[in-house]
Structures are given as structure tokens and as C-alpha cells.
Amino acid sequence: MKPEHWAPHVTVAAIVERDGRFLVIEEHTSAGIKINQPAGHLEAGETLAQAVIRETLEETAHRFVPEALVGAYMTHFERPHGAVTYLRFTFCGRSAGEVEGRALDNGIIRAMWLTADELRAASARHRTPLVMKCVDDYLSGRRVPLDFIHTHSVAPVVRA
């Protein structure tokens, strides 16, 4: 039997490279402490770019400036309560600076800068295989202009 309503979880992730190092986070998860890009869920009313800017600030205290889309990735996970699908949009860009003293999101242990080789060496600690896949895609030069993503805004319905 098919569920009456199914929708993928839409997430965003940021790749920030500085001097050959990538901005990543260590976070508490149900599977232990894991490494991930700054990432999270799209919230109601946000564009994908707004979501990745917000998530990067919340998880790293860095003001993220998206410059391109690296890729869109779909992953299916089997969970005890059923299958879950994630649709992840990964952006690359730069940090416009760190907000000193800003608290990080609950569950985030710290932000850190790792080389691609250091990330590869820590692959057993990655939250998902997409951590390295996205970095490898970025390193191979994958870039899609931001204007490839169109957000159609609908005016709210006014009810009398």
C-alpha cells in the first residue's frame, strides 16, 4: 500500500574552501559524532539560497555568500519507521567573515577547516557519503550558475 502523502526532505549544504581547506562541522547525531558540511532543512517560505545562508550561519557562525550550485543529490534511507528520501542542494561560495561570539546550533560541537585529504581520511566519520561526493564534485569544477534556480513566489490569498 502506498502512503497517502509522500514528500522528500529538502536540504541544503554549503561548500566553503579557503586556502585548500573546507569548512565542515562536527555534530552529535543518533549514530554518534559525525562530520558534515554546514547543512540543514529548507524551511517554509525560504529560497534554497536563503536556506543555505541561514544554515551556514547557524552551524558555523560564518556569513556564507553562495556563488554557484555544485549539484542536486537524492538519497534514500531505510529507517525503522519507513523509507526516507532526501533531496540535497549543495552550493559553493565564500565566507564573508565569522560572527565572533555567535553560539552554534544545538548539537553542533564545532566548526573546523579540513583539507580534502583530511576529509577522505575521516570518511568513516562522515554523516553521509555525500560529504565527500560533494567535495569531489566541487574539486572537479562542477558549477551551475545561481540563476539556474528559479523560485516562483505566489502572493498570499486574502480571505474576507
From TrEMBL:
Q: Which family does it belong to?
A: Belongs to the Nudix hydrolase family. NudJ subfamily.
User: Enzyme group, top EC level?
Assistant: hydrolase
Catalytic activity, EC: 3.6.1.-
Q: Which InterPro entries match?
A: NUDIX_hydrolase-like_dom_sf (IPR015797), NUDIX_hydrolase_dom (IPR000086), NudJ (IPR033713)
- Report the cofactors: Mg(2+)
Q: Which organism is it from?
A: Caballeronia telluris
What Pfam families does the record point to? NUDIX
Q: What is the lineage of its organism?
A: Bacteria, Pseudomonadati, Pseudomonadota, Betaproteobacteria, Burkholderiales
The terms under GO molecular function for this entry are: nucleoside diphosphate phosphatase activity; ribonucleoside triphosphate phosphatase activity; thiamine diphosphate phosphatase activity
Report keywords, A-Z.
Hydrolase, Magnesium
Q: Which SUPFAM superfamilies match?
A: Nudix
Q: Which PANTHER family match?
A: NUDIX HYDROLASE 23, PHOSPHATASE NUDJ
Q: Quaternary structure?
A: Monomer.
Q: Would you tell me the protein name for this molecule?
A: Phosphatase NudJ
Stretches assigned to the Nudix hydrolase domain: 7-136
